[in-house]
Amino acid sequence: xxxxxxxxxxxxxxxxxxxxxxxxxxxxxxxxxxxxxxxxxxxxxxxxxxxxxxxxxxxxxxxxxxxxxxxxxxxxxxxxxxxxxxxxxxxxxxxxxxxxxxxxxxxxxxxxxxxxxxxxxxxxxxxxxxxxxxxxxxxxxxxxxxxxxxxxxxxxxxxxxxxxxxxxxxxxxxxxxxxxxxxxxxxxxxxxxxxxxxxxxxxxxxxxxxxxxxxxxxxxxxxxxxxxxxxxxxxxxxxxxxxxxxxxxxxxxxxxxxxxxxxxxxxxxxxxxxxxxxxxxxxxxxxxxxxxxxxxxxxxxxxxxxxxxxxxxxxxxxxxxxxxxxxxxxxxxxxxxxxxxxxxxxxxxx
Length: 350
Prior knowledge:
The protein is an alpha/beta fold. The protein is built from 14 helices and eleven strands.
């Protein structure tokens, strides 16, 4: 591959609509990112048949056969021991072997994280990678991590999540000086567990050029109070799923209200342009693509039930992370965080 090309490995068999959704999504991404090239991993006959419909995509793609597929019901241990030749494993291997710059899969989340950690390892100084995602807010967009990869986190891990999220927001979202908050049960300094209070103290005393806002509550996420929300995977996953469920609830309420009478149907016709803008703004496909920050390689998890438009956006997240050189910047910031955590005599000796 040339220096100007960005090669993305695709797990063609992951997700509900594979491989059709993966192929059609890649075709959309091909138009958006002319420098992109693709490596498809999966059942060769099915992939080749799908690519035959998209000649230009076929010209910038290679197909690599995989005998096995990791099912959504497979446990991570099964994926590690029994699925060595799976489409997911081979796609991740391509990143580890430097044949591809990043990987995108809509397959089993636990397996993807486990295989990524085993195959690609973690960045220097990272104990646990975090799964993060872009979330819509009143002010625009924020990034939240972790979303379920780490149920229990110590203060060092939470501080690392905050730093990785800040680097992502600055380089990928284009926020000049991202504000960072730790998700808590209150904004007062005495609220929350000792772990989260220690993480806050670490960030305040780090000396890093981070605009640490302090603690934020769940309703601050949608309000866009901060650009980066760091939390453990238990709270993060609950917050995200609650927001998604609430959005679906209000969508159903709105549909029901407009169907109630003839006048409400007429009201719908008048409001249709505004409702179209609203639908586009909160469309989950526009925010599809959770990134595994802290893994020594670019790994993006697409929602398994998304369509081709959503998968294309997940590919876009991988492209942005590669083109912005996100991992070297995370390494630099974390090394400074580790230095700041040392006692003053040891810091001076270095």
